[in-house]
Q: What sequence folds into this?
C-alpha cells in the first residue's frame, strides 16, 4: 500500500468518527426496544421523523455554509443528535414539537457555532431545554407504561396522535396520558406523602418508575458496551453516577421521609442515558482525565439538585448545559503534568 | 533495581511487521561504483574535507576531520579515487543538498593499515573517546549524536546506569534485532569499553518482548562471558512491547522510573543511553581498529519482495540497495527513511545511505489517508495516547490559530513527535504536522527576534559611537579654538611687547 500522507506518522489506526457514532447508535438499540415494549411503538415514529428532519437540516446548513455534503452527512453526528433528542421527548410528542426541536438543535445549537466539533453546548440538550421552557405542557405529557394503560396504543393510533393530535374516535390525549414517576414523586412528596408510600403506587416498579427502571438498565448496558469498545471513556459516567449517588445518599440518610433513595434516582428519568450517552458527548464535555471526573460529578450533583429542589422534574439537560459552560475553565485548570516537570 | 519496571502514560500497541525482514540473515550490499558521502551525517558541525579531488584513498582512510568540538571524522568506505567534492542531494526531511565527497571505487576494497587494540584498559578513558571520535562513531539509532560526547561523564556527574537500547519499538525496523541475534559478542565488546570510559558499574541491555531470539542470544552471550571484569553487573532486561518505549526519555522512565528533567539530559539523573548498533560499532572501532564506514540497514515494506537487513557501505545509492532486494516501487511512489511512525519521506532514490539511515521503508499496511480530515471532536484519544502527557487537541487548536505563545504555554516543545496522537485520531487530523509547523514558526520568530535585537543593538551602538565622535570632534574643535586663541593671544602679546619694545 503506497503512502499518501507526506509527513510522519505514515500509519493510521482504525478509529473513525463515523465508526464511533455507529457504535453509539447500536448501543441505544436495546433501550429503544425497551421503550417500545413499555410505551408502545410511537417512539419509532418520532425517531424516524427526527432523523429525517435532522439530515435535511444538516444538508441545508452545509449547503448554506459551503461545506462538502458527503463527509459531514455520513459522519453520523446529526443522526446521533436526532436520536438522543427523540428518545428524550415524550412518546406521543406532536410532530411539530419534534421538528422544532431538531431544527433548533441542528441549525442553532450546532451549525451557527461552526458545525461538528465547534458547538460549546450539547445540541440535543439545548433543544430539549428550549422545548421544555416553550412547551411545558406537551413536554410533560407522558404515557404510563402500556401495561397500566386502559388504551394500549398501536402504531396507527400513535401515528394519528403525533400528526393530528387526535385519537381515533375523538378521544383526547389527556385521557391516556399521565405524569412521569419522577414528576409524581416530586408532587406527592410536596403533598406530604413519604417515598415508601409513593413507591407502592402502581406507577412504580421495584426501585424506580415501572418500565423506566428497565429502560435505564438497558441504557446502562449499552453504555458499558461503549466503554468496552472504547467509544467513550469510563470517567464521565462513573463520576456522574457517583456524584448522583453520593448526594442522594447523604440527603436520604438525613431525610428518608422526603427524598427518594439513591437507587430510585439512579434508575429514574434520564439518569443512565444522561450518564452514558449525553454527558459523554466528546465535543461538549471536558477533555482532560481529571476534568472529565469533575465534569461528570458536576452533572450528577446538578441533576439531583434540579430534580429535588428545582422547578423541573428532571435535571439532566440543565445539568449538562451548565457543566458545558464550565468546560473551558475545567480544562484549563486540569492540565496533566508533562514529562520532565515532575522532580 | 530493574526488577521492577515502571511505565509511561499513553503509547500504542502497534502491529510490529518485524517478521517481514527477519527471515534471512544480514547480507552484504554489493559494492557500488560510486559512493557519495555527505560531510554532515551527525548532529553538530559538518566535518571538514582533508582530501582533494583526484586523491587516491584506501578503505577506512580519513577523508574529513572533525571541525570543532561537536563533530566527528569521516572515512572512505572503500578504496578508490576522490572524483568530486561538491553539493549533492542528501537525505533530509526538507530535501536539502549539502557538501559531499564522492569516491569512485576501484573494486579492490583495500584496507588502510588498522590498529587493533586488544586490551582497551591500556588506554585512558580520554584516549578511548578520542579514538571513537576519530573512528567517526555517532548514534546509529537515528539521531546521529557524536558518541564520544555521550561517553564523557564530565566532572559534575557520576553515571549510575548505562542503558543499551535494543528496544526498537517502531514497526518494520529490525536492524537492531538482527545485530543482537548475529553479533551479540561484538555488542558485549562495545559494552565493556563504554563501561570503562564512563566508569559505570551497572549496565542494562533493554529489549522488547517481541524479540525472543535476540533476548535469548544476548542472555546466553552474557552468561558465557560473565566472568569478564567489565561485564559484571550487566544484565538483559525484557520490557513489554509498546510504542514509543525506544524513545530515550520513555525508556529511562520504564527502566528506572525516573524522568529526565525538562530541557535536561539523561546524565543529569545519572543515566547514559546508547543504541545496540552504536555499541557494536564502538567495539569494532577499538578492538579491530575499524572506523565507522558501514551500517545495517533494514529494507522492508509491502512493496519490497526480498525484505531483510543489509550491511551497507555509507554513500551507497539507495536505488542500488532497493534494486538488490527486488523492490517494486512505482515511479514517484514516496518512500520513507526511518520507521513509519517517525521517519520522513525521501525526495528520491538516488540519495546515499548515511550513518543515520536505519531503515528504508517502501509501502505500508494501514497507510494514513491524505483525505481532508474531519473537524476535531475533542474526543481526547490523542491526550490518552500521548506518552509525555500533552494535550494534543489543545495544541492543535492553538497551532491552527497560529497562537504560538499558547502552544508554548501548553508545552509544545516537549512533544517528541512520536505520532501516537495522529495515529489514534478518529478525524484523521495530521496533528504532528501541525506541531512541526508551530515549532518551526516559533523558532523562526525567535530568530527574527534575535536578528531584530542584534540590529537594534547595532543601531544603538552606532548612535553612541556618533555621539562620542561628535563630542570628540567638539572637544577637538574647542581645544583647537582654545589653542588658536592662546597662540593668538600670545602673538598679540608678543606683538604688543614688540611694539612696546620698539616704542621703548
A:
Amino acid at each position: 500500500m503506497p503512502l499518501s500522507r507526506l509527513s510522519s506518522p505514515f500509519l493510521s489506526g482504525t478509529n473513525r468518527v463515523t465508526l464511533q457514532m455507529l457504535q453509539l447508535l447500536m448501543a441505544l438499540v436495546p433501550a429503544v426496544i425497551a421503550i417500545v415494549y413499555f410505551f408502545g411503538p410511537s417512539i419509532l415514529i418520532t425517531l424516524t421523523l427526527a432523523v429525517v428532519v435532522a439530515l435535511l437540516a444538516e444538508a441545508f446548513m452545509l449547503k448554506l455554509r459551503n461545506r462538502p455534503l458527503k463527509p459531514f452527512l455520513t459522519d453520523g453526528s446529526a443522526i446521533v443528535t436526532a436520536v438522543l433528542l427523540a428518545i428524550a421527548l415524550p412518546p406521543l410528542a406532536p410532530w411539530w414539537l419534534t421538528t422544532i426541536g431538531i431544527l433548533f438543535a441542528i441549525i442553532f445549537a450546532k451549525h451557527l457555532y461552526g458545525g461538528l466539533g465547534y458547538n460549546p453546548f450539547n445540541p440535543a440538550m439545548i433543544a430539549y431545554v428550549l422545548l421544555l421552557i416553550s412547551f411545558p405542557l406537551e413536554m410533560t405529557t407522558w404515557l404510563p407504561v402500556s401495561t397500566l394503560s386502559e388504551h394500549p396504543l398501536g402504531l396507527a393510533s400513535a401515528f394519528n396522535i403525533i400528526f393530528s393530535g387526535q385519537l381515533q374516535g375523538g378521544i383526547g390525549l389527556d385521557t391516556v396520558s399521565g405524569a412521569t414517576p419522577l414528576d409524581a414523586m416530586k408532587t406527592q412528596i410536596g403533598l406530604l406523602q413519604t417515598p415508601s408510600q409513593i413507591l407502592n403506587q402502581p406507577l412504580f416498579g421495584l426501585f424506580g418508575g415501572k418500565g423506566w427502571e428497565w429502560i435505564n438498565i438497558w441504557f446502562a448496558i449499552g453504555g458499558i458496551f461503549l466503554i468496552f469498545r472504547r467509544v467513550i471513556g469510563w470517567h464521565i459516567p462513573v463520576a456522574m453516577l457517583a456524584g448522583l449517588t453520593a448526594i442522594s445518599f447523604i440527603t436520604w440518610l438525613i431525610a428518608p421521609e422526603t427524598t427518594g433513595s439513591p437507587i430510585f434516582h439512579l434508575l429514574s428519568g434520564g439518569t443512565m442515558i444522561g450518564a452514558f450517552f449525553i454527558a459523554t458527548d466528546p465535543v461538549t464535555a471536558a477533555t482532560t482525565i481529571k476534568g472529565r471526573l469533575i465534569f461528570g460529578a458536576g452533572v450528577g450533583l446538578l441533576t439531583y439538585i434540579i430534580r429535588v429542589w428545582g422547578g423541573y422534574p428532571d435535571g439532566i439537560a440543565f445539568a449538562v448545559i451548565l457543566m458545558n459552560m464550565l468546560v473551558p475553565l475545567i480544562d484549563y485548570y486540569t492540565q496533566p503534568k508533562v514529562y520532565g516537570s515532575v522532580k | 533495581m530493574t526488577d521492577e519496571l515502571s511505565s509511561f502514560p499513553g503509547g500504542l500497541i502497534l502491529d510490529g511487521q518485524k517478521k517481514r525482514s527477519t527471515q534471512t540473515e544480514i547480507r552484504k550490499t554489493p559494492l557500488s561504483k560510486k559512493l557519495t558521502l555527505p560531510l554532515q551525517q551527525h548532529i553538530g558541525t559538518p566535518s571538514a574535507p582533508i582530501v582533494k579531488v583526484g586523491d587516491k584513498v584506501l578503505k577506512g582512510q580519513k577523508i574529513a576531520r572533525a571541525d570543532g568540538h561537536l563533530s566527528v571524522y569521516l572515512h572512505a568506505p572503500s578504496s578508490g579515487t576522490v572524483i568530486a567534492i561538491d553539493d549533492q542531494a542528501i537525505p533530509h526531511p526538507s530535501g536539502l543538498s549539502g557538501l559531499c565527497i564522492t569516491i569512485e571505487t576501484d573494486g579492490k576494497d583495500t584496507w588502510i593499515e588498522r590498529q587493533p587494540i586488544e586490551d582497551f584498559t591500556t588506554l585512558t578513558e580520554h584516549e578511548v573517546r578520542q579514538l571513537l571520535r576519530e573512528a567517526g562513531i555517532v548514534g546509529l539509532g537515528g539521531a546521529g549524536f557524536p558518541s564520544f560526547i555521550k561517553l564523557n561523564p564530565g566532572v559534575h556527574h557520576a553515571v549510575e546506569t548505562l542503558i543499551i537500547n535494543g528496544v526498537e519499538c517502531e514497526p518494520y525496523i529490525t536492524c537492531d534485532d538482527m545485530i543482537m541475534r548475529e553479533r551479540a559478542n561484538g555488542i558485549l565488546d562495545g559494552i565493556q569499553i563504554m563501561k570503562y570510559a564512563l566508569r559505570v558499574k551497572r549496565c542494562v541491555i533493554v529489549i522488547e518482548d517481541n524479540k525472543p531470539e535476540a533476548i535469548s542470544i544476548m542472555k546466553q552471550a552474557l552468561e558465557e562471558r560473565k566472568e569478564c571484569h567489565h561485564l559484571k553487573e550487566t544484565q538483559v532486561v525484557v520490557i513489554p512491547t509498546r510504542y514509543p518505549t525506544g524513545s530515550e526519555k520513555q525508556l529511562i522512565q520504564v527502566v528506572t522510573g525516573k524522568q529526565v528533567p525538562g530541557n535536561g539530559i539523561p546524565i543529569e539523573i545519572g543515566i547514559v543511553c546508547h543504541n545496540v548498533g552504536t555499541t557494536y560499532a564502538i567495539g569494532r572501532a577499538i578492538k579491530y581498529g575499524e572506523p565507522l564506514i558501514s551500517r545495517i540497514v533494514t529494507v522492508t515494506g509491502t512493496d519490497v519482495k526480498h525484505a531483510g537487513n543489509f550491511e551497507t557501505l555509507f554513500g551507497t545509492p539507495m536505488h542500488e540497495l532497493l534494486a538488490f532486494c527486488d523492490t517494486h516501487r512505482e515511479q514517484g511512489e514516496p518512500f520513507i527513511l526511518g520507521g513509519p511512525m517517525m521517519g520522513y519521506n525521501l525526495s528520491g532514490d538516488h540519495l546515499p545511505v548515511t550513518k543515520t539511515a536505519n531503515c528504508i521503508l517502501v509501502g505500508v499496511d494501514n497507510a494514513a489517508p491524505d483525505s481532508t480530515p474531519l473537524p476535531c471532536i475533542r474526543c481526547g484519544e490523542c491526550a490518552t495516547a500521548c506518552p509525555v502527557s500533552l494535550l494534543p487537541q489543545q495544541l492543535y487548536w492553538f497551532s491552527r490559530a497560529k497562537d504560538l505563545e499558547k502552544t508554548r504555554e501548553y508545552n509544545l516543545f516537549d512533544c517528541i513527535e512520536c505520532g501516537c496522537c495522529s495515529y489514534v485520531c478518529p478525524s484523521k487530523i495530521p496533528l504532528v504536522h501541525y506541531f512541526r509547523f508551530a515549532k518551526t514558526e516559533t523558532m523562526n520568530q525567535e530568530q527574527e527576534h534575535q536578528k531584530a535585537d542584534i540590529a537594534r543593538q547595532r543601531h544603538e551602538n552606532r548612535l553612541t559611537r556618533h555621539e562620542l565622535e561628535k563630542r570628540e570632534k567638539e572637544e577637538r574643535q574647542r581645544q583647537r579654538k582654545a589653542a588658536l586663541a592662546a597662540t593668538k593671544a600670545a602673538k598679540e602679546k608678543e606683538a604688543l611687547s614688540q611694539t612696546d619694545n620698539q616704542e621703548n
Q: What stands out?
A: The two ends of chain B are 114 Å apart (CA to CA). Residues 253 and 259 of chain B are 6 Å apart (CA to CA). The longest helix of chain B spans residues 431-503.
